[in-house]
Specification:
CATH topology: Rossmann fold
Bound molecules: ligand PTJ
Number of strands: 8
Strand order of the largest sheet: 3-2-1-6-7-8
CATH class: Alpha Beta
Largest sheet: 6 strands, parallel
CATH architecture: 3-Layer(aba) Sandwich
Radius of gyration: 19 Å
Number of helices: 11
Structural class: alpha/beta
Strand content: 5-15%
Shape: globular
């Protein structure tokens, strides 16, 4: 499908097409379309731009990744469709390991996602086939199967676009979880250690930028930045931002007395 760049919703339509293409190629779950629609709705409410609360979370996330002993980036179907190049660039910049971890796990999807990442320059992709031999306790979805060299032993895990159960299970294991989720009310957003309320397509390149910028900072300064990040306050700001925006939009809508016939 050809979308003219002049279309007012060009970027959004292009992203939708990428997810649809991922379904056609067999690596995005059908349910990924529904998840994407939910994301689009929240992006609309946020204003389809990275807001200051997201910028602050991105800085904290960069500090967490740079001070980690064993950072891992978890990749699912939607992320592979929407931001494969940025995910690989981030893994290289930190450096961090890449691991495929799927809610609707099939061997075929695992392999296809690893292939997409390799096409974008990834050298090693964990979590495919027998490599996902370790188990996250108390988690009953297919997400429980993880790489013994990756998420299982990670101290910091980046989970762009995630379901709440795994975030909670990873937190219970004492791991720092960084989530990217457009819905500030989701269980993932609430349970993560650091929540970036933004579109994965905008947040990922900004995260690569932040990691590159903060790389020259010493550990003490990075830990100071991390300590100053307040997740509760940042989420509250995201919700207030949406509420304020909607109130302003409602106030600006033209009012007419009665129905024009
Ligand atoms: O590839 P799999 O098998 O691991 O499955 C992936 C999906 C996304 C289908 C699975 O994890 C799922 O069902 O997720 P949920 O529970 O629908 O949650 C997805 C969350 O991501 C929702 O809170 C959405 O608002 C949010 N979201 C959707 N698109 C984006 C997003 N957040 C950031 N950027 C987006 N582009």
């Amino acid at each position: 499908m050809v979308i003219p760049p002049t279309h007012p919703r060009y970027r959004s339509l292009l992203e939708r097409e990428k997810v649809v293409e991922g379904v056609r190629e067999g690596y995005v779950a059908l349910q990924g379309l529904i998840a994407h629609g939910r994301g689009e709705c929240f992006d609309y409410l946020i204003g389809e731009a990275t807001q200051p609360f997201a910028e602050r979370a991105i800085e904290a996330a960069a500090a967490a990744l740079l001070t980690a002993r064993h950072p891992v980036i978890s990749v699912n179907g939607n992320v592979a469709a929407l931001a494969p190049g940025d995910v690989v660039a981030l893994a290289k910049a930190v450096p961090a390991l890449l691991e495929v971890n799927l809610f609707y796990r099939t061997r075929e999807r695992e392999e296809k996602i690893a292939e997409v990442l390799r096409r974008h320059g990834a050298e090693e992709v964990l979590g495919v086939g027998e490599d996902a031999a370790c188990t996250i306790p108390e988690l009953f979805s297919e997400r429980r199967r993880v790489s013994c060299r990756g998420i299982y032993v990670a101290d910091v895990v980046l989970v762009p676009l995630e379901d709440g159960d795994r975030t909670e299970a990873l937190r219970r294991l004492g791991k720092t979880v960084i989530a990217i989720d457009l819905n500030p009310l989701s269980r993932t957003a609430q349970a993560a250690s650091i929540t970036i309320v933004d579109n994965v397509t905008r947040a990922m390149p900004k995260l690569v930028e932040a990691v590159t910028r903060l790389k020259s900072w010493d550990r003490k300064r990075l830990l100071g930045l991390l300590r100053s990040y307040d997740k509760g306050a940042t989420l509250a700001e995201a919700v207030s931002h949406i509420a304020k925006r909607l109130t302003e939009i409602a106030a600006s809508l033209p009012r007419r007395g009665g129905v024009v016939v």
